[in-house]
């Protein structure tokens, strides 16, 4: 009996031990990154067999699972990347670090899409477009290469002022109401070639985030939108060369390791010399000259497994000459020469405490130096007008992913602005007085926090708060103005470091998403932002003669409150995305110019501007088909952008204090893009855009003064330019890697900008008629003749050869 009991006990212990061994579990962790940028890939799909399990990576590219000991096959996939497969034996805790490479010959897909198939349904963020490197390269080419700003104009609610516009207008906002960042550093002039292309070095761009609604609390200083452009991390273990040769520009980029697995380098340059092309497209450009260059350098250093240090440098240079006649005091010039320069630097250190928590510290500087040159007639002397913006910022931010349902970040930011409003150097001209306006120095200290929380599966919340403390300091001269006639009654002089004016402000941000079902959601959002820096100009696109100005006692900071509401639905297994989004933005202390304002070398620019109210509202309808041999997206926007002065003095009133259309009011806008993919070697794309013409001011009457007909303007923006519309064509021919040389690949890109040669005017001007018989069938007996200015009246053709070697 005892023998049988011992045998029975032995069997129980043996079976129990066997069962324990069989059910032993281990942690299988993943870190999925982009091979080129080393950035974590969010929402990468991980499938594991034979357990038929897996998951989706978080925003840092991480996923952790508990699995029994066994042999598994791991498959990792994500749109735009090659599929990765690996077989492992799980008999201990394992961390798999997998770098996905770009899918070289994948058919192009629509890029304005969510980060995962249903992110547009679940995310509480409204009005956001997030594009990564593989997606950016599939955008319809405008002039032979992908362009960040041109691509953004395909998004609902985003426009420019025409073919030559120095920036973006987002949901009816002015150009200076958008914060444009390139690797954390602000860009104050984002375009080359009068606004045709952006300054961002194409191959350097890693991803682009555009925020139009509840702007995250880590951003501040602009009331309309944030465009955040990041530079790729050169996480490479071998030399790579890429570039392109084109009619409008050529570019070259290299990526290489300097110290294996420790120090890596990216360097990219681009240049354009288009003087010989301009007369082809317009006779009035025969004396116009234009050339530009930009370059981006990034070094990344990995001292430990938990630390990453990077430095990014950016340089941009523009020079162009316009055949115009301008007068400054006693000097006339037959040509105006414009010279822009940008020099930025960003130093970033990121320390990871673990897979879910990290601390990021950024030190950056930005220098913007616009200049305008007036060559004197019959003289070698040049009169130069210069201004500058110097910006320094320090950012420190801690972020943590607590679990799948909530994460947060908290940070501080300190900024310093130093603005040189302008100086005039007459050179050898003895009859011109040199002028130098006093510098403006200000400091801004901000603290911010943001929380993303998903209390129940159908509800997602995003809440943030930002606090700003802004101070303008001396040396500074503050003017006091008479309430009746606006004349200067007093000048108060502040010494160096003295506080001139201080503003503080709280900026709440909120986003809510409620899922009606797995394919439909409702979203609402709110954001308040204060703007302490503004660009003052009296044209639709700023020139070097425009004025950058910080807030002081006379010019209050702009404040914008933006509300949003939308419904979103995915159809046909997420292959079709529909969205309907409405917004309303109420703006206070918005700036506009007085009639006849001239900001050139004005000591007290407050005398030429007024502050009032603004409102922008609209509805955006979007349709997207991301995949298939025929794919594309369409969007239609109905919107209004209005301004109003609220001044008692008649001389300070604009439009007699009635609402009027802003320069960026476009009631109707339609954008459509369609891609035809016959095979993996050919992609043909068409892009069509149409929008209501830009407002402009037409004279209400005329008066004769000493034989000269003088127009009288009583209303602001009381007329519109003709309907703007344009069709663009792009054909990309991709050559696969040859069997003889698998390290070399190339393609050709042929583009036609403005296919049918539409003459879209950018402005209208009036002149006195001398010969009334000339154009009498148009102007009849009017003493004034109205003439439209259009930069392009023919197609703009470009052919670019692109190559890559590794």
Automatic annotation (TrEMBL):
Residues 313-755 form the TonB-dependent receptor-like beta-barrel domain. It is found in: Cell outer membrane. Keywords: Cell outer membrane, Membrane, Receptor, Signal, TonB box, Transmembrane, Transmembrane beta strand, Transport. It is a multi-pass membrane protein. It comes from the Bacteria. GO terms for biological process: siderophore transmembrane transport. One of its GO terms (molecular function) is siderophore uptake transmembrane transporter activity. One of its GO terms (cellular component) is cell outer membrane. Pfam families: CarbopepD_reg_2, TonB_dep_Rec_b-barrel. This is TonB-dependent Receptor Plug Domain.
